[in-house]
Structures
1.
Amino acid sequence: EPAIRSTLTFSTVKTGLFKRRVIQVARRFGSLKKWADFSNVSLQKLISSFEGTPIYEEGLKEVFTKDLDADGLVMVLGRLRRGDVRLQVVKTGGNPTPVARVGIERVSMKTDLIPPEKMRTVLVESAKARLLNETGNFVCTACWDYMEMIRIKDLPDRPKCPRCGSSAIGLLKVEEEKAVGLLEKKGEHLAKNEEKMCSYAKQTAALIERYGKAATVALSARRVSTADIAGVLEKEPSVSDHFYELVLEAERKSLSKRFK
């Protein structure tokens, strides 16, 4: 019996069913926010971070009591070993039996199985909606006389300064009041924090000037450096499904670096 339970545990912790249970328990315990977004997180690393905690053990317990019949499995295998019951092979020509079909359908519903191609579409559409609805603080790095908060989806393909006509429009991820010093000082004689903003504005302006709106979409990604964004744009300079996949990958890599 211990060997059976050990093998069952070893197999169970690798399943999506177990991961789902751990996340549910973690939310109940308050360790994860209810609406936390896991699209850019390695679920395996997240689950591993709970290993050895009551959350992990409770997740395992719930799988065994609510999703699996561990006691029933031990009993059946014991009866097979003693010869009380006999294993009968049913030839179905490769098709599931009526009983197996019910089991497959129930497991599919519990684990929310999604075909890889459909999952790819879901992730791309989710990224598209998120990035296009981000709002950026756009500033002209040529005349330093223009700054405006604009939603990414409302931008033209080739953003230009309405004051001087320059396409050297930078994107800052700060509110207007925090960046107003750049305009007041025309990008010169700046404080240390303003120098950082100015440098970032110029870096993003170079990308936007070269790639247009596609750059603003990519720059709206979470915690991704301008160097990594430049890498994405070099591979895919126009907005497409592949473009969004590259942005998501850049976000994942950035997040993984933070947890190393």
2.
Amino acid sequence: MVGSRKVKTQTFADRKAKSFSRSWSDPTPVKPDSLHDSRDSGDLQASSGNLDEEECDDVDWEEERESERAACEGDDFIPPKIMLISSKVPKAEYVPDIIRRDDPSIIPILYDHEHATFDDILEEIEKKLTAYRKGCKIWNMLIFCQGGPGHLYLLKNKVATFAKVEKEEDMIQFWKRLGRFMSLLNPEPNLIHIMGCYVLGNANGEKLFQNLKRLMKPHAIEFKSPLELSAQGKEMIEMYFDFRLYRLWKSRQHSKLLDYDDLL
């Protein structure tokens, strides 16, 4: 798990192997043990690559676009879909097991809500994208976290509101840097789905999304936070998840009586 500071007796990979085997090969399997080891050795910080490069104002966007175009050549290329999963979501450790097995472009990233930092998340996104296809960028993204009307609870003590993303420097830099991972080639606005909370429950939710889109310019971004029971919510779920397994997971999300390993 990204950002985890504790050694667990059973790793996510161990538990995943115990559950059903996926019929396709995940191009970027989650390896929490190796992440933990590299953090201890300092390699993870060294691998951050271009995260600390110059401010976005100094970037040659046309050069960035051409670099992305060269990386994505080939009829077999499928733009990656990044899925950020907060450990604060109940039964979050099972979410990578219920994603669509017929779509190898879905890349799940489970992060530790209590201990991860914004840099941890950005470094892991960069690492996963490089493993998938060096130089490629995100066209679709799902952020699965807790929150509510007008706010996102991304990390411990880091609640994103429309006011805070204007004032708190670490939050501002996170969204700017996240924008750097979004595609410049996509003819449509890159899509970021918010799941696990209904951000648009009041007017501040739309203000938050407008501020985030401004921070992520010149990349064109569209935020969506549909209710899961709506038609748009079902469409969002089916984009990333095996719908049957998602409903099963949802029905057991708050249960302590049955282990998912007995069901999947």
3.
Amino acid sequence: MRPKTDFTRKRRSCATASGSIRSELAELQLTDYGLDRPESGDDVVVPFTLENLDSRGRVVRLGDALDQILTRHNYPAPVARLLGEAVVLAGLIGSSLKFQGKFILQTQTDGPVNLIVVDLDAPDGLRGYARFDADAVQRAIEMGETKPGQLLGKGHLAMTVDQGQHMERYQGIVALEGGTLEDVAHTYFQQSEQVPTLVRLAVAQLSLKGERSPKWRAGGVLVQHLPPHGGRTMPDLPGDGNFDNPETADQNFAENDKWTETRSLIGTVADDELADPAVSPERLLFRLFHETGVRVFDAIPLEERCTCSAERIEGMLRDNFTAEERADMVVDGEIEVVCEFCSADYHFHLHDFDDVKH
């Protein structure tokens, strides 16, 4: 089991106003409250448990890794922000899987941003790509219609677990109906796992001291309610899992008080806190849960890493295309392949495939 640290602070010592709490906690030394290691920086996942609230979760904080993914393609800002949210979501979900393989998050929709693909190459490699209609995105910007649901439109989101050759792939699919990635994540967990789940995602472009240009940053938190003695934790279908919507929620279901408290605390998180380099994942968790207690585990590092290579692409050209099809790909005497994720440029000649029988 990964090393862990317990945070607990007595209720009587807490300030009462939200602003004063943030100000007070910003000055605290977390080592005085049980943290036995330095606070985490960027490009990490920090798992945590809330034993007194029967919940567990993860916080993701991305800095340079996300900036590399987003700036490599010079995306328009709304597209970059949307892809950034998808990268955070993939990090939150994929980092929980205990296998050597890939977690793949993919959207296919009819909106201006019609395709997003994010891979987490377990345990720590992230890459992402967005395909979009430049004219449609520009019109959306001019009309002020750049919310995630407006850019995505309708379609579906697929989450795939690929454990490699000779292992069965698992895929879950959920409809995208013009909502946010947070919305679709909630629907996914309600339908696939029947586990009460709350997801928060935030992406920002910030000018940091000492940097020549603004940098993309992001953060997210995922928390799930897992009572130790089982029992009914979700409303019966049909029902959208939104306990605050009287038209769709299961009226015969009473939400667990501990989950109500957890949701309320997570609801106080501001987007700027999730992406703020001055608020480490541990400090964020301490601010939220110092009254009930939170146990944090060692951070898991993440990095931007593409899995493409000349060998992989040559193998793809050998195995998936005939000699005639490869000949049709030749331009100026060579076949050029550009990786959509990292923009790496690969060049091949037909004689590289002389030993292929088809």
4.
Amino acid sequence: MEVLEFLIDEEATMLEAMQQLDKVAKKVLFVTRDGHFVAAITDGDIRRWILKKGNLDAKVKKMANYHPKFLLEEEKTKAKDFMKKHSVEALPILDEEKNILSVVLWNDEEVEPQRTLDVPVVIMAGGLGTRLYPYTKILPKPLIPIGEIPIAEHIINRFNRHGSDQFYFVVNHKKNMIKAYFNEVEKAYKVDYVDEDKPLGTGGGLSLLKGKINSTFILSNCDILIEEDYEKIYNYHKKENNLITMVCSLKNIKIPYGVIEISETGEIESMKEKPELSFFTNTGMYIVEPKIIEELEDDKSIGFPDIIEQYKVKGEKIGIYPISENSWMDMGQIDEMEEMRRKLERDE
């Protein structure tokens, strides 16, 4: 990759940094002042800023680390050992004037992932998938192929690579097709099923897991892919002592028109030409404590967001874990499904 792709000026905004991190698909950018390397900023730095309710229009220098890791050119041969010691994914190599000459990347194939996330995963797979007609007239949504394997298998494979090997499907619509597929596929994990007799929503089906899950678990919709470090999300949830942690993605929408704000007297108060709106949206993935399952009313249809609202009213701690826009793929609608296919093909 080109060095310039990793560089961001300290006067740039947090939003611009998030967008650039998405482009380089790494977790760090190198911050410059007058063209010279002075600091580094990671996705974790930006996440902490967001969780402190920091404004995304704030400057990068507010959260950048001005004591970053680097090596001089004559030390470049030590880069891999240095990166391993300090858990660095991308390391700048500098000349004596602190100009970045190159960036050493820790190639994925050289890193043996640690499989330590021994957490059960529940996949809500009982919906009709009406927004994906005509595909779902033939197949249940979890079995719609994205490339060579169905979306549900993509989801499971990602969790399995992090160490999860116990999966539960909450099934209803075309459930026998789902069972037949996963009973036959060669796998290094276990799949169990709980059957809804009637649609119970994205939350109600969890009541069927009483007595089956007694520890913190991950809940996922069956039509999303999250490209993140699941162990970091889980550890954040436990550290914050949340009852539920919702994984939320930053979304940026550029309004293609000039936006006018009007005062109470009918006069123009302000004008913004083609503004960009930034907000966080629910991805459909959560880290959840088992208390939720035990306290659910049996045989009652309810959406998981409604469950969250109920516990918020009770004063329980509900947190979010922010991720970038490109870390979340959703196939809830046909155009989104096709975009997911294109993205996975590009990445393979």
